[in-house]
Amino acid sequence: MFDTDIYNQKMNEAIDHFASELKKVRTGRAHPSMLDSVHVEVYGTKMPLNQVSNITAPEAGMILVTPFDVNNIATISAAIRNDQSLGFNPSDDGRLIRVPVPPLTEERRRQIVKQTSEKVENAKIVLRNIRQDVLKHAKKAKEDKTITEDDLRGIEKNIDSQIKDFSAKIDEMFKSKEAEIMKV
């Protein structure tokens, strides 16, 4: 019999990845995960910011970065400033780094929604690729005579139904995030 569990797991992983990508999208409120993409060169190695500092968001418009080693303050500030996709201008007082998060303009909100919709399309492409893999392996199994023509049709119907459900879940997650982004 043809096993679709591996493909279900791949689709769930695609949804989880999409959810983690949505968490990175800026919505106007400061959040420590906004700095997840920042990598800092310390001790001769490029490391994620959260491994060399403590990151908090004490208020809606501010992120505080407290380095574990105060000697790295200038390097951390430069790394945050150099990440052009963030557009932040951090300031430090010798002990910690303050990263003001400016409020989003209407134009910037629309731009963020557009970028997020590209992530939606990428997630759906991943689902379609998984569907193609399932159908390819199912047709191969039919050629090898391990499944029948009826089994193949059942698998196609089942996978199409699952893809439709997962796609609807992605759309629902996007609508929720879009509302969050556009809310002033």
Unreliable segments (pLDDT under 50, ≥5 consecutive)?
none
Return Rg in Å: 22 Å
CATH architecture of the largest domain: Orthogonal Bundle
Order of helices and strands: HEEEEHEEHH
Structure description:
55% of the residues lie in helices and 15% in strands. The chain is an alpha+beta fold. The protein has 2 domains: 5-24 and 105-182, Ribosome-recycling factor (Topoisomerase I, Chain A, domain 4); 32-100, Gyrase A, domain 2, CATH 3.30.1360.40. It has a 4-stranded antiparallel beta sheet with strand order 3-4-6-5, with helices on one face. The chain has a two-stranded antiparallel ribbon with strand order 1-2. A hairpin with a 2-residue loop joins strand 1 and strand 2 (45-48). Helix 1 runs antiparallel to helix 3, helix 1 (5-24) packs parallel to helix 4 and helix 3 (106-143) runs antiparallel to helix 4 (149-182).
In brief, what are we looking at here?
This protein has 184 residues and is α+β, with helices and mostly antiparallel strands.
Task: Name the descriptors.
RRF_sf, 184 residues, Ribosome-recycling factor, single chain, Ribosome_recyc_fac, protein biosynthesis, Ribosome_recyc_fac_dom, 4 helices, 2 domains, two-stranded antiparallel sheet, Topoisomerase I, Chain A, domain 4, Gyrase A, domain 2, 4-stranded antiparallel β-sheet
List the helices and strands and how they pair.
Elements: H1 5-24, E1 39-42, E2 45-48, E3 53-59, E4 62-67, H2 73-82, E5 91-92, E6 97-100, H3 106-143, H4 149-182
